[in-house]
Write a structure and sequence with these properties.
about 240 residues; 2 domains; 12 helices; elongated
């Protein structure tokens, strides 16, 4: 069986190495390519690897980096023209934003190097956003975002803070209240959304209560549909439009 197509996260890591001034030659014996191969094999992205021997091995990683040559205007040769549309999209997105690329790649590396986080990320369910690869920063950072906004202790503290202040738990976007709608069965139920954009999301930064917003399940799904750009305030305007 063929190995699975490359994920956005993997291409980000490969492109970060491609732009590394100290990368060295595009050769399967290059220590940096071997190191990247080992990193890719450890990522919590694939439950099954059809061909473990060939899966993201140094030869395959070398071929992936060679695909970027055909996209690179700074390269005078022709390069390999077997790259994917996702290769082209990511190259175009980050070729002039290499600091951002390197920052995202480092966040992915940090998750991969942390056994506990790697295990937690692997257990986060897939959704429409992750399946469609629609998050610029990739699946791993997106799933890390989900893990942080599900942290029981801080979610509990956020709910307690709002209850003390308001006496109720309304959605901060549409004002839906589970207890008013479902009675005692809905008491205390509401979801938390992490306000920090994924482009600024850092694993090492501790989540504060002001980083979280209490939202109903529907509004939470809508916020995640455009997690890179859509704020609570912007989603409110869409609700007002829908009521017009």
């Amino acid at each position: 069986m063929r190995n699975p197509a490359w994920h956005r996260d993997e291409i980000i890591l490969a492109l970060d190495l491609y732009f590394d001034q100290n990368r060295g030659s595009l050769d399967k014996k290059n220590p940096k390519i071997i190191e990247l191969s080992n990193l890719l094999r450890s990522l919590p992205l694939f439950a099954q690897k059809p061909d473990p021997e060939k899966f993201r091995n140094p030869n395959g990683v070398t071929l992936k980096l060679s695909n970027f040559l055909a996209l690179d205007p700074a390269y005078s040769g022709t390069g390999m023209e077997r790259g994917s549309d996702l290769d082209r999209e990511i190259f175009t997105r980050f070729s002039n934003n290499r600091d951002e690329l390197h920052s995202i790649a480092n966040q992915i590396r940090q998750v991969a190097s942390n056994d506990d986080l790697r295990e937690k990320v692997s257990k986060v369910e897939e959704d429409e956003v992750s399946i469609k690869e629609s998050v610029i920063e990739g699946q791993i950072i997106y799933k890390l975002h989900k893990i942080k906004e599900r942290d029981i202790s801080i979610v509990h503290a956020k709910k307690k803070q709002v209850l003390v202040k308001n006496g109720y738990l309304d959605c901060e976007v549409c004002t839906f209240n589970f207890e008013r709608f479902y009675g005692p069965f809905g008491k205390g139920f509401i979801e938390c959304h992490h306000r920090t954009p994924l482009s600024k999301f850092k694993m090492e930064v501790k989540t504060k209560l002001e980083d979280l917003a209490l939202v109903c399940s529907n509004c939470h799904r809508m916020l995640h549909r455009n997690i890179n750009a859509l704020t609570l305030e912007e989603l409110k305007t869409k609700i007002e439009y829908g009521r017009a």
